[in-house]
Amino acid sequence: EEIEEGSSCPSQSLSQSKDLESQEGSAESVHSHKKKIHMSPIFLQPKTLWLQKQPKYSRKSTPRRNKLDLYAIIKFPLTAESAMKKTEDNNTLVFIVDVKANKHQLKQVVKKFHDIDVAKVNTLIRCDREKKANKTGII
Question: pTM here?
Answer without folding.
Answer: 0.55
